[in-house]
Amino acid sequence: MRNIWQNVRTLYGIPRASALFVYMLQSVEYRAWPYLVWFWQTQQFGAVMHRRTLELTRAARFLRAGLFVGMLLQLAGGITLLYLGWHNLVTGGIWFGLALIMSYPLVWAHVVAVVSVVGQIAVIGPREARHIVLAERIFASHPGRRIAIAGSYGKTSMKELLVTVLGEGKKVAATPANQNVLSSHARFANSLVGDEDIVVVEFGEGKPGDVKRFTDVVHPTDAVITGIAAAHLDRYKTIVAAASDIFSVATDMPADHVYVNTEAEEAAAFMREGYQGYDRRGALGWRAQNISVDITGTRFELTKGTQTLRLASQLLGLHQVGPLAFAAALGLSMGLTEMQVVTGIGQTKPFEHRMQPYQLAGAWIIDDTYNGNLEGIRAGTELLASLEAKRKLYVTPGLVEQGDQTAAIHQTVGDLIAKSNPDVVVLMQNSATEHIQTGLTAAGYKGKVMVQTDPLDFYQHLDHFVAAGDVMLMQNDWTDNYR
Amino acid sequence: MQVIVQDLLTSYSRVGKGKQVLILHGWGDSSASWKAVAKKLAGQHEVILVDLPGFGETQMPSIAWDLTDYANFIQAFLRKIGAKPYAIVGHSNGGAIAIRGVGQGILQAEKLVLLASAGVRGTSSQKGLYLISKVGKVMASPLPKRMQARLRRGLYHKAGLDLLVAEHMQETFKRIVRDDVRADAAYISAPTLLVYGEHDEETPVALGRQLHDAIEGSVFQEIPAVGHFLYRDAEKQVVQLAKEFLSA
Amino acid sequence: MKTVAVIFGGRSAEHDVSIVTALSSIIKPLELTKQYRVIAVYITKDGRWFTGEKLKDIHLYQSSKLEEYLAQTKSTGVVFDHGLKLLVPTRVGRKEVAIDIVFPAMHGTYGEDGALMGLLDMAGVAYVGCGVAASAIAMDKVLAKQLAVANGIPVSMFLSFQKADITDDTVGVVTQITAKLKYPIFVKPAHLGSSIGITRVQNDTELTNALEVAAYYDNLIIVEEAVQNLIEVTLPIMGLANNPQPALLEKPLTAAEDFFDFDTKYLQGGKKGGGKKGGTTGSQGYSQIPAKLPKDIYAQAGHVGLAVYTAFGCSGTARVDMLIDSKAGKVYFNEMNPLPGSLYAHNWAQAGVSKVALVEKLIEYALVRYAERQKLATTFDTNFLKQF
User: Fold this and answer.
1) Pair C283, C191 in one domain
2) What is the pLDDT of residues C209-268, one digit of tens each?
3) pLDDT tens digit string along A80-133?
């Protein structure tokens, strides 16, 4: 009852409702379908905006003002009709008026979705198309090596790794954080000076054909494929479909310029003659040995013939050894000195929310909340298992966008968690919870499972859950629109 | 530390070594805000800080007191802790208590430091304030209790009345603001230093001058650009003046 | 889902501290477990009981809002009916809410001293923390020391007097004391928590005054010799009486003064100041955890702490305060605190027990103890009445 009343207040309050609809659209990057799904699944509209506030971009302002005026007009029209109908000036005015008054939030919640679709097709689309044509010319004529980074996971990490390590001896430019689609590639091309030795471009695939389109614009000379896993399955449907799109980056280049992370089996299946693999055993003819991992970082030796480099990175986990070895080996092959490579690797560190350790109330928290795929879970649980701690805690809401694989994948998640054997598992109440629990039970997990109903409350009171000597791994963090 | 004086649980502290100096704080204040000054004087003196009844951690008297009651209390307190201060430092109302006590021979001190001391009454503005408090009470009486309190607070605030800071001591306050010490001041023979702040509105410089005239041989100092709480706002200067005066 | 009532506030000088304990260290962590329905039961300074969600918000107590809230809210009743039930006011009347577990969060009188535990035992409900006897003895400094002595646990030399002894013949009492004890001496009211009414004295005048002050607060006064070369330490302990688990030995770093008073003990606790090296903020201000002490002394203090816990028959949690003569290397029992402020969660966290884990364990102990008590036969069928 209270819920209904609060929803009425939120939806029928015109200023609040217009801000809310734009907020929801903005959160899903103005994609109409996810927005509508979210809208119809929301039970408490008042609680939607509690995580962050509306970012007032130009588009957001425009939409919000439009919604405000539109709803106001409909309301006014409804009242007028009601008035006219009441005085018998318009037949059925009362009913039409009432209908208009009752329906304005619902009507405009949908109108705004249509407007955003039309806006993208009519305004943003053509403008971007022009930019992309221009970008294609810039990339094609650029004298430096253009390294494309594609894969279901680990792209941003690989990009940062290359920038940090290669940057020790070369001039490197790379796409900015999380900007990995065509429109941002176009903007990036515009910012290039032309004297860069190396240009690193991240390919953020989302639907079939994406990587192909990126490749046609960027014309990469080298390609790094960081891994294949179940991601964006709602569009790709199968891992095979996703993988073949990702591997399409390698079509127009010599095979030995294609570097593939062979750590996971999924990618190994797509290896072709001449592709160069890298994993925790080594890369480009270099062997990684004497690996040690703790909460402060990862150390190993890289050997080839009589040459040995002692490398230490602040990145966490065995799964980092492959990418680190690859970045070091690539640097050496491009003419960096050993010293430069050692320094470069030494400067690699986790960035925010990606296997990033920090201390809280005497405990170590490993923040991996930006991670969103099974491989990341595999790496994380493996790390957790290898670390020394008085007590281990594992936190996850599960993974999103797993399509019809949801149940199977989350059972695997449960299985992986159970294998790392934490003392406490904290899950967030959502559609994945039961599958993870099934996986945990099937794997014979005996520890404690806590199910949190209010994730925000949990994250805000993390310090209540940990104590000195604890290690807590937090993987993935669902945004509001996934429940 | 605590001690029972006149059946009141009394909180006090002693710091430093040397000739004893007793500090008497003002209305609505407490010894806690004097800790910084006390620490600075403690190099040469044993400083005795006491919370006056109704303030700080000392219990409130069960009936309304006037300045003489406070002076008698201080006398009993000093006897109880076996202290015989060489000097008394009084701020605002504490100054008025010191003047009453020393002037009437209730308290003994070889030197007196009066900081923004109160005790000169009957100026037109003070009568006005008293009137306001009466009028306020009558005006508010038909209203509900909570609104009464709010209204009175508003009125007092407008009038700048000190009652605000210690509402629980209303009756005592009314007695004290009618208790003039100029007659007692005339009996003071101990060397006395009077210090006032230029912008003091509670106890203006002019009021200090009147006390200066009343106490024979007293020294008058004005500190520019500070108000009533000069021991806080001009701590350095006040400590300096007091130190020099006490060691002279 | 089990219902836990957290009872706090109360007719005690430590009323406010109790609110902080309940809200920060008990209610929030309990709610975060998602295992319990948590009811805040607030006892006003004049002894009325209130329940309500709003009572879980610290802001209510930091302003004048509390008075308004209490004025608008009906108080809560208590019934004993196969356990404890609260009569919670609703719009139309009162509804009964059965309580499965009580988590007392009271400090000082009428709460920590066994009074509340007595009520809970009468009701026959499971509750967290020490029972009636342990609580009552702990809150009586004289009984506590006598119990320690009877168990061979070292305490500093002490004497005790009734208030009447002091008012009738102060001089006689002073003579008695000075004949047996050497200055400096501590004078304390026997039943008060914190440091209220406690004075450290150096001579007869101070002693006389201090006796008067202590007698102002209490009918029983304890006088004890100060420990020389003093290091004060405290040890939080939890668990059932037969298996107590210590946290870390903690050394308060506040008070360069003679000893810490109420001010430093509680009021400054919340303020942030220039932290000293190796110190952490707890409910007692800055402290060193674990206390840097020679190994043997550290171990000795651990033994004394656990011995006290067992001697008192504590279960749940408690904090044992000890005094160390650092030159003689001797540890003395000083006081036992059956419900440490904020549960000493800061110390437990350093010892590896999170706030959430702490309350979970305490609830677990409460249930175990309750189950054990249920097994004991307390009534017997006799034909006594028939014979009559």
Assistant:
1) no
2) 999 999 999 999 999 999 999 999 999 999 998 889 999 999 988 544 434 344 444 444
3) 988 888 888 878 888 888 888 888 888 998 888 888 888 878 777 777 788 888
List of chains touching A (3+ CB pairs within 8 A): C
> Does C216 share its domain with C236?
no
Interchain contact, A464 vs C350, CB within 8 Å: no
Cα–Cα dist C161/C222, whole Å = 6
Residues B86 and B151 in one domain: no
Dihedral pair phi/psi, residue B160, rounded to 5°:
65, 25
User: All domains of chain A, ordered by start, with CATH?
Assistant: 2-125 (no CATH), 143-347 (3.40.1190.10), 356-475 (3.90.190.20)
Query: C194 or A171: which carries more pLDDT confidence?
Result: A171
Shortest Cα distance from C28 to chain B (angstroms)?
33
- For chain B, 248 residues long, give each residue's pLDDT as a single digit of tens: 899 999 999 999 999 999 999 999 999 899 999 999 999 999 899 999 999 999 999 999 989 999 999 999 999 999 999 999 999 999 999 999 999 999 999 999 999 999 999 998 876 555 555 555 655 565 555 566 656 666 666 655 554 455 555 667 888 888 888 889 999 999 999 999 999 999 988 899 999 999 999 999 999 999 999 999 999 999 999 999 999 999 88
- Asked if C14 and C127 sit in the same domain, the reply is yes
Task: Write down which residue in C184, C210, C225 finishes a domain.
Answer: C225
Is C386 part of any domain?
A: no
- DSSP-derived pairing of the beta strands C199-201 and A276-279: unpaired
Mean pLDDT of C151-176: 95
Spell out where A171-227 has E strands: 172-174, 198-202, 222-225
Domain limits at C260?
Answer: 228-367
SS3 state at A288: strand
- The reported pLDDT for the residue numbered B149 is 63
Please confirm whether the linkage preceding C154 is cis (ω < 30° from 0).
Answer: no
Tally of domains in chain B: 2
C142 lies in some domain: no
Query: Is residue B160 located within the same domain as residue B69?
Result: no
Do C166 and C288 lie in one domain? The reply is no
Contacts (Cβ under 8 Å, ≥6 apart) of A187: A131, A179
Contact B80 C216 (CB under 8 A): no
Residue C27: give its domain's CATH number.
3.40.50.20
Tally the C-alpha atoms within 13 A of residue C303's C-alpha that lie toward its C-beta: 13
Interface B:C, Cβ pairs < 8 A:
18
Chain C environment of A465 (Cβ under 8 Å): 32, 354-356
Q: Which domain holds residue B153?
A: 124-173
* Total of domains in chain C: 3
Starting at the edge strand that comes first in sequence, how are the strands of the sheet with C94-99 ordered?
C77-80, C84-89, C94-99
Q: Give the end-to-end CA distance of chain B in Å, rounded to a whole number.
A: 31
